[in-house]
Amino acid sequence: MVELGHFYFGLTNQQILIVKTTGRKYNMAMTADTQIVQAHYRGIRRVLAWILALNWLVAAAKIIYGVLTGFTSMTADGFHSLSDGASNILSLIGIHFASQPVDRDHPYGHRKYETLFALGIAGMLFLLAFNLFREGITRINNPGIPRVDAASFAVMIATIIVNIFVMRYEYGKGKALKSDILVSDSLHTKADILTSLSVIGALAGAKLGFPVIDPLITVFISLFIAHAGWGIIRESSLVLCDSAAKIDQNRLVEITMNIPGVKGCQKIRTRGREDDIHVDMVVTVAGNMHMDRAHAISEEIEQAIKKNIPGVTDVVVHLEAHGHPVNKEPR
Question: What is the CATH number of domain 2-27+245-321?
Answer without folding.
Answer: 3.30.70.1350
